[in-house]
Amino acid sequence: MHVIFAKPESLTDRTTHYCPGCTHGVIHRLVAESLDELGLRERTVGIAPVGCAVLAYHYFNTDFQEAAHGRAAAMATGSKRVRPDLILFTYQGDGDLASIGMGETIHACNRGEKITTIFVNNAIYGMTGGQMAPTTMPGQITTTTPFGRDVNDCGHPLRVAEILSEIRTPGYIARVAVHTPRHIIEAKRCIKQAFRYQAEGRCYSLVECLSTCPTNWGLTPEEAGQWLEENMIPYYPLGVKRTPEETAGG
Asked: CA-CA distance, 125 to 160, in Å (whole number)?
């Protein structure tokens, strides 16, 4: 029998703990497929965050490390500088990366560390009960903003991809979504390109993945995909924001 679709070798057989409709599993598969297709699995080390993906080391069939909250980029930097032959990737949510870990993220990008970051933006703190995140939408109801996010008090949601794309150091920065097959295909292309740039020793890379959180959004999986389409994509426009081929510094 000719097999045309199978589990990537870079994923384990373990059942994930993610809620129904959560798109972490989709992103896991895209990362795993990219590692397999590029032949990188045997020299890859992932960095698990604090957040919904805290148990990512159970699901990827690669070596893994666990970072303190927000410190994944710092841990990846140290590992990569000690072992530049390794492929280092961090897998982080919006609380881990864009709140407590924003400093580590910006400076890793600014230094041009040869690591890859997969940034999952679901506009809310998922694991800890649905509090407002740095990426929570204006007016969005969370457990800590029961009347909706007031930008006059809390500021506007952070557009991480745009912030990093302004840094002069060459890098690969993209934003994708994973709520429809069409978007998943494009997300796979960008994630694979990010790992390819690292394998070539080219640059820092970050792929921001717009993701759904039906449980904390209080929606069905179908409604969550529609909410992402109607609310997040207009504020967080998709596409490649920067490539290393662009001249640094102008």
From this structure: 16
| Residue type (1 letter), 18 | Y
Q: How many residues can be counted in the chain?
A: 250
Residues 95 and 125 sit within 8 Å (Cβ to Cβ): yes
3-state helix, strand, coil in the chain (%, to 5): 40, 15, 45
**CB 44 within 8 Å of CB 66:** no
For 121, phi and psi rounded to 5 degrees? -110, 105
Mean pLDDT by 10 residues, the chain (250 residues): 88 95 96 98 96 94 96 97 98 95 97 98 91 96 95 97 96 98 98 98 98 96 97 98 76
Considering all CA atoms of the chain, what is the largest pairwise distance in Å, rounded to the nearest integer?
Answer: 61
Buried b (16+ CB within 10 A) or exposed e, 12-40: eeeebebeebbbbebbbbbbbbbbeeeeb
Domains of the chain: 24-242 (3.40.50.970)
* Whether the model pTM is above 0.85: yes
* Amino acid at residue number 196: R
From the list 10, 12, 185, 162, the residue with the least C-alpha distance to 87 is 10
